[in-house]
């Protein structure tokens, strides 16, 4: 679905969101899915169709500079959250449920915390605040070194995810992840990793969140370890936590059914 976002008079920008195979329909409850840094809407392919065929509008967005949405990449998590709100405005949506993964979880969190009346539910996958990024990864990404893609892929999957245990025959999880990251433009991965690394004050906003909230964590997540999410879970009023056993950071691919079941419970 192509969307035109009007940031200010005379300044219109195109955006893209996948709709889960169903047309957007005014009046339906809407769920916005927000991908992680350097990725795009396709990471949600195994979850979004369910909601699209069960009475929800699905908007699996491509953030600016990713996928089919032109850049530049917003420099901060707050700017990305503002972009999501502008996208809702472009579609005349008063509110929506927000789902985010990795860096996208920070975007969803920030949007729900600064615009609490516009978030009907919040699901944060692979989330922590702060979300520190290793210097070796930041340096490689800043220099557009392909090893940055390898690091994200290696650290982003559990051992099982790297050794052919994919439940979907014919899909290669690590190869697919590297290929998707390689399609990102120069500087995109660095900009998003830096934005996540710099987002350190978000816990101060957690008390603003008024909607039902779920954190979906992964037992073998090497990028945002489950234990690192505890301060965030404790700071959000009434937040629930579920942990996926044996799963890595790229949980939507490694354990798609378990992720979907978790999302159904909150959405």
Give an account of the 3D structure.
- With 267 residues, the protein is an alpha/beta fold.
- Helices cover 35% and strands 19% of the residues.
- It contains ten helices and eight strands.
- The chain has an eight-stranded mixed beta sheet with strand order 1-2-4-3-5-6-7-8, with helices on both faces.
- Helix 1 crosses helix 10.
- The longest helix has 14 residues.
Write the SSE topology.
Blueprint: E1 2-8, E2 11-18, E3 30-34, H1 45-52, E4 57-62, H2 77-90, E5 96-101, H3 103-114, E6 119-125, H4 135-142, H5 147-156, H6 173-182, H7 188-198, E7 213-218, H8 230-235, E8 240-244, H9 251-254, H10 256-266
Poorly predicted segments: none
Class derived from helix and strand content: alpha/beta
Number of strands: 8
Number of helices: 10
Share of helical residues: 25-40%
Shape: globular
- Give a short account of the largest sheet: 8 strands, mixed
Order of helices and strands: EEEHEHEHEHHHHEHEHH
The fraction of residues in strands falls at 15-25%
* Mean pLDDT over all positions: 95
Strand order of the largest sheet: 1-2-4-3-5-6-7-8
The end-to-end distance, rounded to whole angstroms, is 22 Å
Computed CA radius of gyration, to the nearest angstrom = 17 Å
Features of the shown structure:
single chain; 267 residues; alpha/beta; 10 helices; 35% helix
């Amino acid at each position: 679905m192509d969307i035109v976002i009007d940031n200010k008079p005379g300044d219109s920008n195109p955006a893209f969101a996948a709709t889960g195979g169903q047309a957007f329909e005014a009046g339906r409850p809407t769920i916005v899915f927000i991908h992680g840094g350097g990725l795009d809407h396709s990471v949600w392919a195994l979850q979004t169709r369910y909601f699209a065929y069960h009475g929800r509008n699905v908007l699996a967005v491509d953030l600016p500079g990713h996928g089919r949405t032109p850049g530049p990449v917003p420099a901060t998590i707050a700017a990305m959250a503002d972009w999501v709100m502008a996208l809702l405005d472009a579609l005349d949506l008063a509110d929506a449920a927000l789902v985010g993964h990795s860096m996208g979880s920070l975007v969803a969190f920030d949007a729900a915390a600064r615009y609490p009346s516009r978030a009907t539910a919040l699901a944060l996958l692979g989330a922590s605040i702060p979300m520190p990024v290793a210097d070796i990864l930041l340096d490689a990404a800043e220099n557009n070194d392909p090893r940055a893609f390898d690091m994200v892929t290696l650290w982003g999957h559990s051992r099982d995810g790297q050794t052919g245990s994919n439940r979907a025959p014919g899909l290669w999880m690590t190869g697919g992840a590297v290929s998707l990251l390689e399609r990102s433009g120069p500087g995109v991965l660095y900009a998003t990793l830096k934005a996540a690394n710099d987002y350190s004050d978000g816990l101060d906003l957690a008390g603003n969140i008024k909607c039902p909230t779920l954190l979906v964590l992964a037992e073998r997540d090497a990028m945002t370890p489950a234990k690192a999410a505890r301060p965030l879970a404790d700071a959000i009023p009434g937040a629930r936590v579920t942990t996926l056993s044996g799963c890595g950071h790229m949980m939507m691919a490694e354990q798609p059914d378990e992720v979907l079941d978790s999302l159904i419970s909150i959405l």
